[in-house]
């Protein structure tokens, strides 16, 4: 007697109309429309929600988070490689680590309001899962994974150009590459004089100004840097000064 085995064809669960409407609103806010909305839904579906809706066969976002993590790291690596040709491999790695880390991803997710769209189980909801840092960071990466599968790498980069890369440009992560402090310590160790920073030029219109800064040690120029902010220009000048002092020490 043959045994009739039912094949478990996996189909996406059916969302409530209110949830679908919320995701429609999210797509409008981001100006990104998914070709396959089920990928977007999955990106925001926590495992606790899946566990409470087994009969509806929802899929959680864990695999998308795995993919999104890799896509995000590649995209950020490429951006930093192109933007900072003077940085060493170690410096690039350090800066990337500050960008692609849980606190930063939580910041991005919160700014986009991702928390209110997460599909959570009742237990997770009651224990504050919607604001849990690790959960928010995972959702941000899941969204990137979903967008990559839906539309490819170019739209992912465009999305990051909107929400992430501008923060790099204004020096939001410069604390991990604080060349001014490093230069100060180097000079103090050798007690060779006092450092001074001076803006020597401002290029371009007010809305897109480039500052040029010189750092000097006891009236001797050590480096000239430029940047979209005075802080960025000073950091670049300090970085070049460190390199100059290190090269002189090796001679």
TrEMBL record:
HAMAP family associated with the record: RNase_III
Presence of keyword Electron transport: no
Family annotation (Pfam families): dsrm (PF00035), Ribonucleas_3_3 (PF14622)
Enzyme class: hydrolase
Subunit composition and interactions: Homodimer.
Ranges of residues in domain DRBM: 178-247
Catalytic center residues: 69, 141
Lineage: Bacteria, Bacillati, Bacillota, Bacilli, Bacillales
Co-factor requirement: Mg(2+)
Chain ranges of the RNase III domain: 23-152
Intracellular or extracellular location(s): Cytoplasm
EC numbers on record: 3.1.26.3
InterPro entries the UniProt entry points to: dsRBD_dom (IPR014720), RNase_III (IPR011907), RNase_III_dom (IPR000999), RNase_III_sf (IPR036389)
Record keywords, A-Z: Cytoplasm, Endonuclease, Hydrolase, Magnesium, Metal-binding, mRNA processing, Nuclease, RNA-binding, rRNA processing, rRNA-binding, tRNA processing
Positions contributing to Mg(2+) binding: 65, 138, 141
Gene encoding the protein: rnc
Taxonomic superkingdom: Bacteria
GO molecular function: double-stranded RNA binding; identical protein binding; metal ion binding; ribonuclease III activity; rRNA binding
UniProt record similarity statement: Belongs to the ribonuclease III family.
GO cellular component: cytoplasm
Catalytic activity: Endonucleolytic cleavage to 5'-phosphomonoester
Function: Digests double-stranded RNA. Involved in the processing of primary rRNA transcript to yield the immediate precursors to the large and small rRNAs (23S and 16S). Processes some mRNAs, and tRNAs when they are encoded in the rRNA operon. Processes pre-crRNA and tracrRNA of type II CRISPR loci if present in the organism.
Biological processes per GO annotation: mRNA processing; regulation of gene expression; rRNA processing; tRNA processing
SUPFAM superfamilies: dsRNA-binding domain-like, RNase III domain-like
Cross-referenced SMART domains: DSRM, RIBOc
Name of the molecule in the record: Ribonuclease 3
């Amino acid at each position: 007697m043959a045994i009739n085995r039912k094949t478990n064809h996996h189909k996406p669960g059916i969302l409530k109309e209110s949830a679908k409407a919320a995701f429609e609103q999210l797509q409008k806010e981001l100006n990104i429309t998914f070709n396959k909305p089920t990928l977007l839904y999955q990106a925001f579906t926590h495992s606790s929600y899946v566990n409470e809706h087994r009969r509806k066969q929802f899929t959680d976002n864990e695999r998308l988070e795995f993919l999104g993590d890799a896509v995000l790291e590649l995209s950020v690596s490429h951006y930093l490689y192109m933007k900072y040709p003077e940085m060493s491999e170690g410096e690039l790695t350090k800066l990337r680590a500050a960008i692609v880390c849980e606190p930063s991803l939580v910041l991005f997710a919160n700014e986009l309001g991702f928390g209110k769209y997460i599909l959570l189980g009742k237990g997770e909801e009651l224990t504050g899962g919607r604001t849990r840092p690790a959960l928010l960071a995972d959702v941000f990466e899941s969204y990137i994974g979903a967008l990559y599968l839906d539309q490819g790498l170019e739209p992912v980069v465009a999305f990051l150009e909107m929400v992430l890369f501008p923060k790099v440009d204004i020096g939001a992560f410069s604390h991990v590459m604080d060349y001014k402090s490093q230069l100060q310590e180097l000079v103090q160790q050798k007690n060779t004089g006092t450092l001074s920073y001076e803006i020597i030029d401002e290029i371009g219109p007010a809305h897109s100004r480039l500052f040029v800064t010189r750092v000097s040690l006891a009236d001797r120029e050590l480096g000239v840097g430029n940047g979209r902010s005075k802080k960025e220009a000073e950091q670049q000048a300090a970085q070049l000064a460190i390199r100059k002092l290190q090269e002189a020490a090796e001679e």
